[in-house]
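User: I'm new to structure prediction. If I give you an amino acid sequence, what do you actually give back? Let's try with this one:
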Amino acid sequence: MSRKKIGVLLAGCGVKDGSEIHEATLTLYFLSKHEAEAVCIAPDKAQADVVNHVTGEAAGETRNVLVEAARIARGNIRDVGTVTSDEIDGIIIPGGFGAAKNLTDFASKGADCSADENVSRLLQSMFEKKKPIGALCIAPTLLARLFGRSRAVEITIGSDAATASSLEKMGAKHRTAKVDEIVVDRENRLVTTPCYMLAESIKEVGDGVEKLVSEILKMAD
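Assistant: Good question. You get back a string of structure tokens that encode the predicted 3D arrangement of the chain. For your 221 residues, that looks like this:
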């Protein structure tokens, strides 16, 4: 049986302005553990901002999302604009503020946000072909933006009331979940888990990520 190919949609490198590195690395680890092939992808565009992760302050720099995400992927990465849904069996989106800054502008616009055009194209195509989509931490905001009003998708970001309210304003149904739990929308083939929206340790993140990866691979069969 051939190995499943699962896209890993990255948004840069670093929790404050890109992909959360623990979440991204654990996703790659558990895909490998379960003998799936990870296909790392990211938008080829400037980051919304660049943050000094020591001080938490703006760095006053310009960086490219794809170039930064390549750090996590060890250089083996593709521009999301060149990837089609026919090439992968499912997709997982790690969290980190980059998901809410570079994949969408949720961080600045909340429920009035929009999604990156190429990211939207790929995810819409995956959704239409009923290929599974997983999202960690804050990344489910992207699913709410794309599918909330049309399909009233069920997703979780944990238990943060303000973020949950924004998801529901976009038409999604928020389900409260514990740090190591997953919410599975079987009808729409979506899987979400809170990760660092609730986690206090990398182990807690890993517990949720492994469950999500396992469910995505089951759906991809």
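You can read the tokens as a compact description of the fold. Here is one thing that stands out. The longest helix spans residues 202-220.
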